[in-house]
TrEMBL record:
Residues 83-168 form the Baseplate protein J-like barrel domain. It comes from Collibacillus ludicampi. This is Baseplate protein J-like barrel domain-containing protein.
Length: 280
């Protein structure tokens, strides 16, 4: 028999039925009587136990599903981005930018460091490198042109300035339970390959990764426009500057999300098209 959660009223009724079936006297079990009050007090505690058992069982079932399908909470992620160093006097020979070179948001404790050494080429007045925030979480997410302090001088270069040309959006906090539940539901929806939800889910998994394992570009938005015989999937990297490389990567992903007769063409988001779709 399946586990059944009883209400206080049901518990009291069951207790009265059992009690009256076992005694031969006509004790008062009406509302307000001593026996009825004792039954009601016991029923309140037992109903609370039922609710706790039901909630715990649901939580255990949910956690078991997360474990079975490998859905742990996503850890906090340090923000990372490309910053551009500039100098009015280009170097006459290659200059090494050491690993750990530090830049910062002026007036704050928000700092970023180069994860590996890289070489500034001779003759270049500017050079872009990847930096990673020294703190995890969204604290590293900053607006464009706010990372402007060079904390660590670059040996061999003078009057160096630095900035981040784009907004920084890559830092994330530890995933919440609600966020995991939403991510899991999106994954479940995607299991039916070839429908709209699965195509959009698949598109958002497309990303480009550099040699150090950092995501250089990824699909942030996706919209499917269904047509007669073929569909068009518009994607955007969050900056309205989707590269052809990301489009190709997304197409490879989508090829695994269409049925035998489905045809999907992947294109960059058109800015005007995207805004019109947002208003709908």
């Amino acid at each position: 028999m399946a586990f059944q959660v009883l209400t206080e009223t049901q518990i009291v009724a069951n207790l009265i039925d059992t009690y009256t079936s076992l005694i031969t006297t006509s004790d008062d079990v009406n509302t307000g009587s001593v026996i009825r009050s004792a039954f009601e007090a016991f029923a309140q505690e037992l109903a609370r136990l039922y609710r706790n058992a039901q909630e715990n069982a649901a939580e255990i079932q949910k956690m078991a599903a997360y474990t079975m399908f490998n859905f742990p909470l996503l850890p906090a992620q340090e923000a990372y981005t490309m910053v551009t160093f500039s100098t009015p006097t280009p170097p006459t020979s290659p200059v090494t930018i050491p690993a750990g070179t530090t830049v910062a948001v002026p007036g704050t404790n928000i700092q970023y460091q180069t994860p590996a050494a890289t070489t500034w080429p001779a003759g270049a007045t500017s050079f872009s490198v990847r930096v990673v925030c020294t703190q995890t979480g969204t604290i590293g997410n900053q607006r464009a042109n706010t990372v402007t302090q060079l904390v660590t001088p670059i040996p061999g270069l003078n009057n160096v300035t630095v900035t981040n040309p784009r907004d920084i959006r890559t830092g994330t906090n530890l995933e919440t339970e609600d966020q995991r539940a939403n991510r899991f539901q999106q994954w479940v929806n995607s299991l039916h390959r070839g429908d709209v939800r699965s195509l959009i889910y698949g598109a958002k998994t497309a990303q480009l990764v550099d040699q150090y394992g950092y995501v250089t570009e990824q699909v942030m938005k996706a919209q499917l426009v269904e047509g007669n015989g073929s569909n068009t999937l518009y994607i955007d990297n969050g900056y309205y500057s989707t590269s052809q490389q990301l489009v190709q990567q997304c197409q490879q992903v989508i090829n695994g999300y269409t049925d035998q007769n489905g045809v999907v063409h992947v294109n960059q988001f058109l800015y005007r098209l995207f805004l019109s779709q947002i208003r709908i």
